[in-house]
Specification:
Layout: H1 19-29, H2 41-50, H3 53-59, H4 62-71, E1 79-83, H5 89-97, E2 107-112, H6 115-128, E3 133-138, H7 148-152, E4 160-163, H8 174-184, E5 190-196, H9 204-208, H10 214-226, E6 234-241, E7 244-251, E8 255-257, E9 260-262, E10 267-274, H11 278-287, E11 290-298, E12 303-310
Parallel strand pairs: 1-2, 1-4, 2-3, 4-5
Antiparallel strand pairs: 5-12, 6-7, 7-10, 8-9, 11-12
Helix pairs in contact: 2-10, 4-5, 8-11
Length: 319
């Protein structure tokens, strides 16, 4: 796939040994880890999704991030870390917003589960924002801390660590994931979290409308297709349940996977995106051992940005 060909369908593949089995086990269990919707061939469907107007409306809010940087005193940050930069397009939007800072960032470390997406981000940075040096490193934030930040960072310089696009709403255990982030930071670093707020009084159809399109369906189902599940054998439904947008793959006919006979109607949760209240976000941050700093809400966009810092330095990363 060329740097500019975003419409071509690539052959299904997984990135690393064990990924296929993990997806197959998720199908059997009825709960697919969402990170596999962003890796391997699914990275290419996600790349198309990230360019979709409806997706950008849910995950954007660059102006709110910029104003939070200003409020938090982060106007002189030569380097930035971002967890989950995707294809890098939103990252570049943020960096362009920061172009008016006293000392705009010129280095970015992208940490992502998908080496394919990191490759896309690097190519996009090289083509569209060459003045910023992009470095990619594979990391599963839900599994463990990482030493990559310490290995990359400029000497004696605190860095902002971005977790934007409501990525926190995709985690199975948000506080545990933030705990891994905390253990990967130094004292003086600032975690910057962007999340989508719950909208009271809105019906499920309105909440799920941005997800009701062929591009999103293809992206959500790609891990199943990579396991050999035919598009004709599965349908996709999306609903809003208990403050979560939830997508299910539903088998149209029985399938045998890992020796398990799965009947028609078997449901696999293949997408989840939580919506938060400000108090909920703050409680998750505190449960991870972090101290809440600036909290800035954009009511029109239903978006919140929260900064957080470590309480003490009596720990380090373990990987």
């Amino acid at each position: 796939m060329s740097d500019t060909d975003t419409d071509a369908k690539v052959a299904a593949y997984f990135e690393r040994p064990g990924h296929r089995h993990a997806v197959e086990q998720g199908i059997v269990d009825g709960k697919l880890p969402l990170k596999f919707a962003y890796a391997g061939s699914a990275a290419h469907t996600h790349d198309r999704l990230a360019r979709h107007e409806g997706y950008q409306a849910v995950t954007g809010a660059a102006a709110n991030v910029r104003e939070t940087f200003r409020s938090a005193g982060l106007d002189e940050v030569p380097a930035i870390v971002e967890i989950g930069p995707g294809n890098g397009l939103n990252s570049m939007t943020i960096l362009r917003r920061l172009g008016d800072a006293k000392r705009p960032p010129r280095m970015l470390l992208g940490l992502d589960f998908s080496e394919t997406l990191l490759g896309m981000a690097e190519a996009n940075f090289r083509r569209e924002l060459g003045e910023v040096s992009f470095t990619g490193h594979v990391w599963d934030v839900e599994a463990e801390p990482t030493a990559a930040v310490d290995s990359w960072r400029p000497p004696e310089t605190p860095v902002p660590v971005l977790l934007l696009g409501n990525t926190i709403g995709n985690f199975e255990q948000p506080s545990a994931a933030l705990g891994h982030v905390r253990r990967s930071m130094r004292m003086g670093d600032t975690l910057v979290i962007g999340a989508t707020l719950r909208r009271d009084g809105i019906n499920a159809r309105s909440m799920t409308e941005p997800y009701r399109n062929a591009t999103f369906t293809e992206a959500a189902l790609e891990p199943l297709h990579a396991c050999g599940v035919s598009p004709a054998d599965v349908c996709f439904t999306v609903d809003y349940i208990d403050d979560e947008v939830v997508g299910f793959a539903v088998l149209r006919r029985g399938l045998n996977i890992l020796g398990h006979e799965l009947p028609p109607g078997h449901r696999v949760r293949c997408f989840v995106s939580h919506r938060f209240t400000p108090d909920h976000i703050h409680s998750i941050v505190r449960a991870a051992g972090l101290v809440v700093g600036v909290s800035r809400i954009d009511e029109a966009a239903n978006h919140i940005v929260v900064t957080a810092a470590k309480e003490n330095s009596a720990e380090g990363c373990t990987s």
